[in-house]
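COMPLEX REQUEST
Ligand: 2-deoxy-2-amino glucitol-6-phosphate
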Amino acid sequence: MCGIVGYVGSASSAPILIDGLRRLEYRGYDSAGLAVHGSRAIEVRRAVGKLRNLEAALAERPLDGHVGIGHTRWATHGRPSEVNAHPHVAGPIAVVHNGIIENHLELRRRLVAAGCTIASDTDTELVAHLVHLEVERGKDLESAVRAALGEVRGAYAIAVLSSREPDRIVVAKASSPLVVGLGDGENFCASDIPALLPYTKRMLFLEDGEMAVIEAGAVQVTTIAGKPVERAPRVIDWSPVMAEKAGYKHFMLKEIFEQPRALEDTLRGRLDRENGDIHGHEIGLSDADARAIDRVVLLACGTSHHAALAGRYFIEALAKVSTSVEIASEFRGRDAVIRPGDLVIAVSQSGETLDTLIAAKEAKAKGAKVLSIVNVIDSAIPRMSDATFYTHAGPEIGVASTKCFSTQVANLLMFSIWLGRRRDTLSPARAAELVEGLARLPQTMKDVLSGTRQLVANLARRYVDARDVLFLGRGLSFPIALEGALKLKEISYVHAEGYAAGEMKHGPIALIDNRVPVFVLLPKDSHHERSLSNLQEAKAREAIVIGIATEGDEQARTVSDDLVEVPDIAEELTPFLTVLPLQLYAYYVADFKGTDVDQPRNLAKTVTVE
Ligand code: AGP
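STATUS: Structure written out below.
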């Protein structure tokens, strides 16, 4: 996971690198470091912990120079410590790296046998030594990196400096993300777009197996094997402000409140209100393809997996196609049956989650068509997909995914409407109702956010010390129950479980007593009566019951200890509303507990390890 950044130009590099790292800190935050070409040699500063510790180190011993690289780490090999922090140095070479070198044991043995002194426990330092040995054999930096990478197996995005060539950075990529930012008389590289947004919107996306030599006035891309590559830059329409807190205490809170805007951007140009349909050209399937689909398999992890569970409900209900949802890491672990008529949909905010990426590649190799639903443009999953139906949530910085969840659910609903129309399983009138409902959704979400914020904050204050919390839902509310529990766990460290409400009586009900808050999702939908019974079952075991119900639901009011109301809306649209109070609840519990909301312990935003 980790974030890397690089700068070559005429400005002082350290502040730009630190700024870039701050925008990448969500990728990892157990240590950080910079290497900058000084007047004679490369100088390095590293510090354990958050970026502010590195800033303190720089305040004591500043770095001055126009070319540099930086890194923020999420430990894989070796514990978080200064010696394991990047950049790693060997002779004139400094390296930052995101990824995992698989043959590190073998490389370490060989390097030690060749007389190298290896200071850290990391796999990255080995790359620095490999490049150093090649430089010692007389190669220039570009050729040395090329030769060194010939010996490396695994995933990497690396940026390399040599004190003998102080005007350039050499970068290379295999499986880990890397973008090159093109400026005016200055150029950049980073793991992710937001790091570079304040400096440029013109970006070059490297493919796996490619490298680039970055100088102030030029960027040259080649394959690692040495073949020149012509790649046109893309202009990114995200604004830098989108990646800032805009007065909110945390990115997560900002992103929760950004959901109406994210939805609006995601729906824009896709709702065909005139014909009650979806403009589906990005889906990459012809009408005949749509009719020929035998089965849909959704692949995803974490929150994206919960969005996929809602997607299954939509696809089966609206398009009548048998659909399964797979946790990507589990799909990979078995020889899953995939047939050529299957459509695989990979759902991912980052487009870089390794488990999802590998699972999608496996499915493709078995003959499936792969459609992806991804937020980050040109990331790895879109690049291997047959088509990508992007969400337009903008950069999501908080480690806990919120606005991307809503936009993923929106894309899955739009896809299902599109598919249902093509397969004649969805009447034009019903499709038109859903399309109209989607068009109104951003405003309704805005109302729910402003109408429930204080109430939910009060609930969080009241139940902040609960040790266990349960979330129950049926049908479309089941993935929302799972999502409510995941949000609470990941940022507040409170034990929480999401359950299919009907499954409670098969075991988990034993957990309930008068200290356990139980959130019961019971919007007025086809499951309402049964969900109400489940609420009563919990109540009968003395649980503290918090109902998330439709406005005016008197039965829910009578049996709930606390009630959060959302407007009456079509069943398919309920998840967009009911998830909001649960996101807010998790946020406020975490904030009251004083945890690190945007960068919770042990987590990273993008999981590029297996
Ligand atoms: C969400 O809050 C999590 N941080 C995490 O579960 C995330 O959804 C998961 O790692 C998948 O990421 P992706 O959407 O980028 O593939």
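REMARKS: The chain has two domains: 3-244, 252-593. Residues 428-463 form the longest helix (36 residues).
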